[in-house]
Structure formats: structure tokens, C-alpha cells
Design brief:
The chain contains four helices and eight strands. With 169 residues, it is an alpha+beta fold. The strands form three sheets. A three-stranded antiparallel sheet has the order 1-2-3, with no helix packed on it. A three-stranded antiparallel sheet has the order 4-5-6. The longest helix has 13 residues, at 51-63. The chain is elongated, with a radius of gyration of 26 Å.
């Protein structure tokens, strides 16, 4: 082992393939035991079948979720801790539109989400027919008042947006 500032160079053999390797790692971390991600994946696959190992990893995950993240939702990025979270409960923004998480709502997609302006329209006017879009009259995607919404065919909607966005050559 050689020391470089707070980093250490580890030299040793991989516990899976027995290949010699050198790896730089922080003094605060345990010494590496694998030469590659592939060997680590093989190790995890083999050990994951062992109930004691699996329970130990799950316990570590619960004690320190950011260090032992096992592919579950990251607790440090859920809800109001997520930088995309907005004040409206259960909503977030995508492409400038407010999306509501309403898994029990009839018109939600398979992830349980619906665009807020579509929900406002459906609640007051009923279902949106196929081939129709809801247009924001003032072009403000967050102004979802019913007075600002208008139902248009997809082609009419595209004509309006293409005329605003067309370039003069």
C-alpha cells in the first residue's frame, strides 16, 4: 500500500477471479476486494442467495440509506427533498407543465400521473376525445384556470404553436 494525500493505492488479488489489480481508494473506505464491476456483480449474485447476507445488507441499507442503496427509492430524493418538488402536494413539473400524482383518478396514466390542465378540463367539461388537445390561451403552462383553457384538434393546436415558433428565412 502506498499513500497519496488522503488516497491509498491498494495492490492485491481479486477475490472472485484471483487476478492481480491496483486500485486507488480513500483512507475512509474499506480496501477494495474486486478487480472490476463484473466481479463485484458476480459476488453480489452469489451472496444474495444467502439469507443472512441479504438481511445484513438490508439492515445496513435501513441504517444508512445513502451508503447502501439497493435500487429502492432513495429516501434522500423523495418528496420535498427532491429538487423538482413543488409546494402543491403530489405535483411536480415536466417540460413546464404541472403534473399531479393521482393514482386513483380515472384518467391517470399507468404511473398514476395526469397533467393538471387536463384534470381541470375533464373535471368541468368531461372526457377529452381522441385527437384533441387542451391549449393554454395565454401560453403560460402553469396558468391552469378553466378560463385560460381551450380544447382544439391536434392539427389546430399544432398550427397555433408552429406559427409562434416558425422561423423566417
Amino acid at each position: 500500500m502506498m499513500t497519496i494525500h488522503s488516497m491509498v493505492i491498494y495492490e492485491g488479488n481479486c477475490i472472485i477471479c484471483r487476478k492481480y489489480f491496483r486500485r486507488r481508494y480513500s483512507k475512509n473506505q474499506p480496501a477494495p476486494r474486486f478487480c472490476s464491476k463484473d466481479c463485484y456483480a458476480l459476488h453480489m449474485k452469489d451472496n444474495w442467495r444467502d439469507k443472512n447476507y441479504r438481511n445484513n445488507m438490508v439492515k445496513k441499507h435501513k441504517d444508512n440509506p445513502t451508503k447502501y442503496w439497493l435500487g429502492k427509492k432513495r429516501p434522500d430524493m423523495c418528496g420535498d427533498k427532491n429538487p423538482n418538488w413543488k409546494d402543491v402536494k403530489g405535483s411536480f413539473l415536466k417540460d413546464g407543465y404541472r403534473i399531479l400524482y393521482l393514482p386513483d383518478y380515472v384518467y391517470s396514466d399507468k404511473k398514476g400521473c395526469i397533467l393538471e390542465h387536463k384534470k381541470v378540463w375533464i373535471d368541468s367539461n368531461g372526457e377529452i376525445p381522441k385527437g384533441y388537445d387542451i391549449h393554454h390561451k395565454d401560453e403560460d403552462k402553469l396558468n391552469n384556470k378553466l378560463s385560460n383553457l381551450k380544447m382544439l384538434t391536434r392539427s389546430e393546436h399544432m398550427k397555433i404553436h408552429c406559427s409562434f415558433n416558425s422561423l423566417v428565412l
